[in-house]
UniProtKB/TrEMBL annotation:
Keywords: Copper, Metal-binding, Oxidoreductase. Belongs to the multicopper oxidase family. SUPFAM superfamilies: Cupredoxins (SSF49503). Residues 23-91, 101-246, 338-461 form the Plastocyanin-like domain. Pfam families: Cu-oxidase, Cu-oxidase_2, Cu-oxidase_3. It comes from Rhizophagus irregularis. It comes from the Eukaryota. Coiled coil: none annotated. One of its GO terms (molecular function) is copper ion binding. Gene3D superfamilies: Cupredoxins - blue copper proteins. This is Cu-oxidase-domain-containing protein.
């Protein structure tokens, strides 16, 4: 199968001198038979030291669509170690419905690096919420109110915006990725409705919307018809403030951020300054796009059957003995063992039930079975959960106060994707097919919550997994380096970004 990485070159930052350890996750890729290339420290591989290279050698098998890749090591991706990944489909059912395609990579930019931000969140007694960003970015470009910049700053308030060029009466596929640390983005183009055709690599029955809410880690494709009068129109990548809780102990709570990120849809020949008007909201704030817009192109029925494994998990927050904030899954905060990932342990014949408790393991042993996970959110915040190695079917999303009623499950034509929002104090029920031997993270994609330990380790088909052989160069990453020593918090302060406003 043809494999192609499409880089959105406007999203590359340069130059970046990073912590000398890296690890890359290929968000949305199933990694059938190549669990060790999933790129999760402590679960699937040891980090790659400086001057060492690793080829991630995996097949996309039958997957096509919009994905992305990012570091999964501490919060490196928030500092810019991320990009888009598109697998083109020669049999794309919508290929004749658009003329060109574009990538839109949305992100929430922090002026401080995560080397500064994470230790603040990790400080004993920290009583704030998630760090507040400084600018929303559309494909790496955004603006900042320079009156708030420090003295001597080279900040310019009229930085160029991302411009997407179109020709009148042509149709465009926009692939939209929310690669943020945290924020829910709302994407729209003034005077142009969006025909939604893909969510997280799953083709959809097309429906028309005005505004697209995108949680962290989610991807969509929409078709835009350039059928309006020739002109310049605003593209809006708004960070939805309603979904970002703030108190005055929150890191950067007095951020000068303008939550309304802008780009421009430029028709060939247009000379006007854009002054287009934003659509009214046609979605529920802080929730995923409504399921009526997410019907798979053909109903996916394989999740309607006998559930072979059932797991019940609860999300909360707590504090450790040093009063540090921790995210808890079933009362346990995930701690990766950087120098001995779980998959290495399994292949050494360690039984999954004997893994250290703080690896938050859940075990699925039925080959080809249907696993069901009930996630209860005992916390007021919404959490966008992403599963590695799989897509899952959403049986139900329950709001705060709703009673869990199995008769309401959507078994016959469920929404299928790899990232969903779990409502604050609500619950979700998802199902997936246990057919992919591996150690797969299931975690909140708010990067600040990952760092607080909101991660589960799915141990799937360990009897098959333990017979597999991890490639020598991957194992060597653990053997050759004293990683545990090198991955201290102190190291993170070595992240330096020299010029945050220099783009390729
Ligand atoms: Cu979260």
């Amino acid at each position: 199968m043809k494999f192609k990485i499409l880089m959105n070159h406007t999203n590359l930052l340069k130059p970046i001198i990073l912590n000398p350890l890296h690890i890359f996750h290929w968000h949305g890729m199933f990694q059938h038979g190549t669990n060790w290339y999933d790129g999760v420290p402590g679960q699937t591989q040891c980090p790659i030291p400086n001057d060492v290279s690793l080829v991630y050698n995996f097949s996309t098998t039958d997957q096509h669509g919009t994905y992305w890749y990012h570091s999964h090591f501490f919060a490196q991706y928030v500092d810019g170690l991320r990009g888009s990944l598109v697998v083109h489909d020669p049999d794309d059912p919508y290929l004749n419905q658009y003329d060109f395609e574009y990538l839109v990579v949305l992100s929430d930019w922090h002026h401080n690096t995560t080397g500064v931000l994470l230790p603040l969140q990790d400080a004993p007694g920290y009583s704030g919420l998630r760090p507040i960003p400084d600018s929303p970015l559309i494909s790496g470009l955004g603006r900042y109110n320079c009156t708030a910049a420090p003295p001597g700053s080279k900040c310019k308030s009229n930085q160029p915006l991302a411009v997407y060029n179109v020709k009148k009466n042509k149709k465009y596929r926009f692939r939209i990725i929310n690669s943020s640390a945290d924020g829910v983005f709302v994407f729209s183009i003034d005077q142009h409705k969006l025909k939604v055709i893909e969510a997280d690599g799953i083709y959809l029955k097309p429906t028309i919307i005005k505004k697209l809410p995108v949680a962290v880690g989610q991807r969509y494709s929409v078709i835009v018809d350039a059928n309006q009068p020739v002109g310049n129109y605003f593209i809006r990548g708004t960070l939805d403030k309603r979904c970002t809780p703030i108190n005055n102990a929150t890191i950067n709570f007095n951020s000068a951020i303008d939550w309304n990120g802008l780009g421009i849809l430029h028709y060939e020949g247009a000379i006007n300054k854009p002054n287009s008007k934003e659509f009214d909201d046609d979605f529920t704030p802080c929730r995923d796009l409504d399921k009526k817009h997410l019907n798979p192109i053909k109903p996916i029925t394989k999740y309607d059957g006998h559930v072979t494994d059932f797991v019940n998990i609860t999300i909360t927050f707590g504090r450790d003995k040093n009063q540090r904030l921790k995210a808890l899954i079933n009362n346990s905060s995930f701690v990766p063992q950087m120098n001995d990932p779980t998959v290495n342990k399994i292949t050494r014949d360690i039984d999954a039930k004997d893994l250290p408790k703080e690896q938050n393991s859940v075990i699925f042993n039925h080959n080809g079975g249907i696993a069901e996970i009930y996630v209860k959110n005992n916390n007021g915040a919404d959490h966008p959960f992403h599963m590695h190695g799989h897509v899952f079917a959403i049986m139900y999303v329950g709001e705060k106060g709703e009673v869990h009623d199995k008769s309401k499950y959507n078994k016959r034509n469920p929404v299928v994707r790899d990232t969903l929002t779990i409502p604050g104090n609500g619950f979700v029920v998802i199902r997936f097919i246990t057919d992919n031997p591996g150690v797969w993270a299931f975690h909140c994609h708010i990067e600040w919550h990952v760092e607080l330990g909101m991660v589960l380790g799915i141990i799937e088909l360990q009897d098959t997994l333990k017979k597999e052989t991890i490639p020598e160069d991957v194992v060597a990453l653990c053997l050759e380096h004293d990683l545990q020593k090198r991955t201290t918090r102190k190291m993170l302060n070595s992240i330096v970004i020299n010029e945050i406003r220099s783009y390729d």
